[in-house]
Structures are given as C-alpha cells and as structure tokens.
Amino acid sequence: MKPLAVQLYTVRDIMQNDVVGTVKRVGEIGYAGVECSGLPGMSLEDAAALFREIGLRVSSIHSGLPNESNADEIAAQCRILGCSDTVVGFGPDQMATLDLTKQCAADFQRAAEVMQPRGIRVSFHNHWWEFSQTFEGRTAYEIMLAEAPDVCSELDVYWCQYGGADPVAVIEKHKARIPLLHVKDGPLTGGDHPAPHTAVGKGTLDIPAIIGATDPAVCDWLIVELDHCLDDMLTASAESYEYLIGEGLARGRE
Fold first, then answer.
1. Global confidence as pTM
2. How many CB atoms lie within 10 A of CB 67?
3. CB neighbours (10 Å) of residue 136?
4. How far is the C-alpha of 193 from the C-alpha of 124, rounded, in Å?
5. Are 186 and 194 in contact (CB under 8 A)?
6. Per-residue pLDDT tens for 28-58?
7. Closest of 49, 71, 59, 72 to residue 9, by C-alpha
8. Which of 63, 64, 155, 250 could staple 4 via S-S, CB 3.0–4.6 A?
9. Which of 202, 191, 192 is closest to 229 using CA atoms?
10. Who's near 198: CB < 8 A, 6+ residues apart?
C-alpha cells in the first residue's frame, strides 16, 4: 500500500484562519503526508518545522512552471520541505488548439530538462479539459505525454473521468509515467460548472479499481484533493482517509 497525503488546497479556507491548527488536525486524522500549494502567513522553514513536529512528510509541491529564471528557487523550496517533486497545471485556454497544446508540452519538456540537474521531477496536473479536448483523434493529455517525454503525470482521476475518459484505462496505459495520483470523488455532474465533490468513497468513481491499476514500483503517493464539498472540508478529508485506510487501499502515518 502506498502512503496517503492530502493536498492542502483541500483545507485552504480553514487555513486562512488557523494554519497551524489545521495542519495539526490533518496529522491527527492520520495522513502520512501533505502536498503543498501555499501556507498563508508561514515561511517554508516554519512549515517544514511544523511538518517535522507532527510527523508529516511532504509528497510534492505545486508551483509555477519551472524555467531558467525560477528553477533554483523551486528547487530550494523542494529541498526545504524535503521533497523532490513539483507539479504544475494549465488552464483550458492554454490548450484550446493543437498548436497551443503542443506549445504547453514544449514548455513542460523544457521545465523538466531545467529541473533534472537539480534533482527535481516535474509532473503536470490535469483537469477535465485535457480529456474533453481532442485534436486529430488524440486528447490533450495524450499529446502532452507524447510531446513531453521527460514529464510525469499527477493524474487527477476525478477530472479524468469527468472529461470523458476511463481513469483505469488511462492508468493502465500510462502507469510508468504516473508517480503521483490525485484521488477525489464526486457525482460527475455539472457540465462546465462541476457539482461539489464528496469524500472519497461516497461518489461514483470505482476507487479500488483505479488505485489497483497503478504500478506499485512507480506510484509513490496517493493524494486526496477535494476542490469543494457540501460538508466541512476537514470532515470530508477525515472521511476520505477513513475510507481509503479502511478498505486497505492506502496507508497512513506509521
């Protein structure tokens, strides 16, 4: 079983009022780690100390797209937090045409090449448009992987299925490129305005089959991420943890 983290974006609103208390609550739930995308009012050094105190590892960070001018800064952020993965996503307008999608892939490939000497792996995080937008019979996701061979995929399984693809089939085809898996769940409704997510295990995705399709030699982390829920986000995070651990699909902090 792979360790289970939570993307702190999930509890972003709660952290605005109490960063330390929120992170401690994540630790109390039992998560093995966190994925960072900003800690309001806290330095990276203080965040790293807090994570060490609680016993949380950092699976990865979300950052801007690495390039020659920011590569050292992003690498330093990873070193301070004790991780070696940075993740970036693009918006739908940036992948509106085949040429734009290929440009995104070229930018990502260059980012991977810049970060490789610094020991940092670069992955792209998908939403639904990478699967709903197709060009010449290929999804934007397929084009990205083909045109950026040194880039990995942090596959968001919910948005994958929301965009019209089968996440199990996508994982089976590309498992060698998927070291990080974003695990979320929900009703798969809402069109361009997605309905709120649910705790993992309470939605419509076949979570056991999805996790079972990953390559255990490649997939390093399972990461719960929920954008919006009808329930309190800490409650949904706890319920997601309880489901994934209870079903033997992941492991918590040891």
1. 0.96
2. 13
3. 6
4. 22
5. yes
6. 999 999 999 888 889 999 999 999 999 999 9
7. 59
8. 250
9. 202
10. 185, 186, 187, 226, 229, 230, 231, 236
